[in-house]
Each structure stands twice: as C-alpha cells, then as structure tokens.
Design a protein that fits this description.
alpha/beta, five-stranded parallel beta sheet, 9 strands
Length: 310
C-alpha cells in the first residue's frame, strides 16, 4: 500500500519515540549505546508511517524451523521459546500504541523452506512448525502478528521448485558473495555464525570434524544466498515495511537486529535452543543438553515445552 502523507508537526519526534521502544532490545555486537538518530533508515521509514497516520509495518524474517540436532532443542515443533518470543513481539507492538495510537503490525516471515534442504530439515517438519506458529498466534490472541511463508507466494508448488524459483530470481551470484565476505567484517561474522550453526546442527555426521567444517563452510554460502533472496522477496511483497532481523546488526545498518529472549550468546534463538525458567521466574535460552543440567523438563499439551530450574 503506497503511503500518502498529511501535514504533521510531530512525525519525526513520534518516530524517535517509537524507535526508542525498540532500542532496549537491539540485537547487536556493538557495545556502545546508540540513540534513535543513529538509525536514520529505520527512523525515516517509521516517520513516513506516522505522517500517513498508518499502522507501522514490521517484517521479521526468522522462525524457520527447529534445529535438527536433538541436543539443542526439545522437538521439531514450537515450544515455550517461541511462545515467549511471539508474546514479546506482540507486546512490543502494543507498547507502540501508547505513543502512537494507530500502533504497529508485525509479519513473521517464516523462512524454513528457503534453505531446508541445506540445513537437513524435512519440508514436512517445516510446514508443521509454521502451522503451529499460526495456531499459537490465534490461541494466545496475538492479534498484531501474522505469519508469511513461501506458501503465500508460490502456493502448492513442490518445495524444490519453490526454492529454485526464489534462488534463480533473487539470489546474489556466489562469486560476488565470496568477495563481499572477504571484504566486509559484518558479512564475515554472519558467514562464520551460520557455519557454526551448521556444524552444531549436524548430529549424525560420520566423517572427520575437519570434513564436516569444510562441508558446512560451503553450505553457509548457500544459506546466505537463500537468505538474501528471501529478504529481497519480502521487500517486493512488503515494500514499505521496517525490516527487523534476528541476527546481530551494527548500529545504523539497513536491518534492525531484535533480541527475542535473554541468552548468553547474541546469536541464540528459540529454534536453536530450549527455554529455561530460572528459580527467580526469569527466562533464558540455552542448548537442550545444557538446560537439562540445570532443571527438569516441563510438558504442555502432551509434549516437552521447556525446562524449570531446580
């Protein structure tokens, strides 16, 4: 929907107030605190929504599927980690309504099918995960959230055909990506982070560790290609939305990194970990095998949900 503007003397200050609600949750490896003015792209986008008197649209690529490594997660369906994260995102939108009555809407762009073949997760598990996200949003009355995935774009095409279509239309050339990763520190950090996840998520490798690392380094390029392609597809379908990211982002980057839950590692997400409820009532994320050392499994609806510290 193209945004039309009306005269308003306060759009920039309102935009800054909205961005200030996001800043405490900024997922970044930068140590210095930054003000709203350090994010000119996001501030400009939010201000345009304010000028138009329209709800602010956010897109968040993520919530793809659970890690295939059973040492990291409790199963292949969303659990307490996703419930808490979705609730947090919906609450963030309601907080925006207090400073800007039209509020905000957030589209969760579930990207599991984009690289499911590269990370070793069956497409059936990915569909089940996204369907459960939609169910949770309804059950928890998270009315400011919605889910968008490849089924919304390419319908019932076979999954491999969907991946090939998106890759062919949007993915950057491999040589250009390699050059960028060699030259750009942020791109290199992302590449290393994804390589680490691929190594950690491979639970059934029978060869040497060095062979696994070599294979994961190659697959990491493919994951980044597909991720970039997914981002460009989202931009085509949600052209005015403010782009959030579950990956750490430097201050002032085109994407705003958002931390979903407390975790000791800035890269940790609910789909690569299990949720642990501490004795003081707070929550954190950690690999399943580590959480099991801290607490006991709690079930919900007949399946494991999270750990509770004992």
């Amino acid at each position: 929907m193209p945004l039309t503007t009306t005269p308003d003397t306060l759009p920039t200050s309102t935009g800054a107030a909205i961005l200030n609600l996001l800043l405490p949750h900024h997922r970044t490896t930068d140590r210095a605190h930054a003000s709203a003015e350090a994010f000119p792209q996001q501030l400009g986008q939010i201000t345009e929504f304010v000028r138009a008197g329209a709800p602010i649209a956010f897109t968040l690529p993520g919530f793809p599927c659970k890690s295939p490594n059973p040492a990291k997660v409790l199963g292949h369906l969303p659990d307490m980690g996703e419930r808490l994260s979705l609730t947090f995102l919906n609450t963030l939108c309601t907080e925006i309504e207090r400073v800007y009555p039209p509020g905000a809407r957030m589209t969760i762009c579930s990207d599991g099918h984009i690289f499911g073949d590269l990370i070793g997760v069956p497409d059936g598990h990915i569909d089940a995960y996204a369907d459960e996200l939609r169910l949770l949003i309804g059950q928890l009355d998270l009315s400011r959230l919605s889910v968008f995935d490849l089924r919304d774009v390419l319908g019932d095409l076979p999954h491999d055909a969907k991946r090939a279509h998106v890759h062919g239309r949007y993915a950057p050339p491999l040589d250009a990506l390699r050059t960028e990763i060699r030259a750009d520190d942020h791109a290199l950090a992302l590449y290393r982070g994804i390589t680490r996840f691929l190594v950690e998520d491979t639970a059934d490798h029978r060869g040497t560790r060095s062979a696994l690392q070599r294979a994961c380094r190659q697959r990491a390029y493919g994951v980044i290609q597909r991720s970039r392609a997914w981002g460009d597809l989202i931009a085509d379908h949600h052209p005015h939305a403010v782009r959030l990211s579950i990956h750490p982002q430097p201050v002032g980057a085109p994407k705003f990194g958002i931390r979903l839950l407390d975790a000791p590692d800035a890269w940790t997400t609910p789909w690569h970990s299990a949720a642990l409820r501490r004795t003081d009532g707070t929550w954190t994320l950690m690999p399943r095998d580590k959480a099991a050392q801290w607490g006991r499994v709690i079930e919900s609806d007949g399946r494991p949900s999270h750990f509770e510290q004992v």
